[in-house]
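Much of our argument rests on the idea that a fold can be written as discrete symbols. Part of our work consisted of pairing the sequence of a single chain with a tokenised description of its backbone. We regard such an encoding as a compact summary of how the chain folds. The amino acid sequence and the backbone structure tokens for this protein are reproduced below.
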Amino acid sequence: MLLLLTEWLANTYSGFDVFHYLTLRAILGVLTALAICLMIGPFMIRRLSRAHIGQPVRDDGPQSHLSKAGTPTMGGSLILVAIAVSTVLWADPRNRFVWVVLLVTLLFGAIGWIDDYLKLTRAHSKGLPARQKYLWQSVVGASSAIFLYHSAQLPAETALIIPFFKEVAIDLGWGYVVLAYFVIVGSSNAVNLTDGLDGLAILPTVMVAGALGIFAYAGGHSTFAGYLGIPYIAGAGEIVVLCGAIVGAGLGFLWFNTYPAQVFMGDIGALALGAALGVIAVIVRQELVLLIMGGVFVMETVSVVLQVLSFRLTGRRIFRMAPLHHHFELKGWPEPRVIVRFWVITVVLVLIGLATLKIR
């Protein structure tokens, strides 16, 4: 929105041309989203507390979590507001990729809102039935994948890029839709499974979003893309503004979500942020790199899958409790230790993912 205004103002004063630079608008996106969270956060937490919108806690989980019952939840709404406002202000509204990511994020947030609402009204940790949740996730994920496939302008936009190999690009055809669907829906659920400890999911989300922003900026610039050997996706660079909004909103939310948390993001935030990471990775053609950088999300999801399969097939559990962070808690690790160590792992994995830009 403000980009269009500054373009008009540049006709009278050339200094406004500075807002054409993606890097400046990305920085402003970070700062705007961060400011919104820090300003609105205390008010939102008070309102949630007065409305008794408190987090229900599993009675079969670690005993240390029982004290968290009643902590305000659905704080992800603050994240979504900050992302939406910052993106609308600083991103180019004529860019199709920006609207795809923003709409997918908000629609997954709506699914999460329904899930959270049902948990609260039923005063139980189980909300929207899994089949219904997956159905609506599938509708949004598949629709966005089909749109991206039909709106693709270059062959590179639908090819599978293999990290560390400069010349390897596999033409997927309609397989692109299948891959995109699983990346979006899978990433959404993976972040949701990780969101079980104070700040555990939000900081890795911030780090991965920031790294994807670098891929978006490079992939949307023909010179940089050619030099680095990554696919050039016209218009993808604008996503760096949205990635900046996610970073700013995430850091602002972490201010209140860090241990001991004053508020939880709930499914409204976790499902939305995971879907956002997934669709961004699909657009910039870095699905496999997302798998690397989001390794914490992956291992949390795999731990749940293995636990369920093992119990159904053998009647035994591999982990003391799934997702994996609960396993370490039950082994005696203090919650802050689990959180920080998972953060450290994410830093390493994100650096490995960024290294694929040059090691090809």
In short: Residues 307 and 317 are 6 Å apart (CA to CA). The two ends are 38 Å apart (CA to CA). The mean pLDDT is 90.
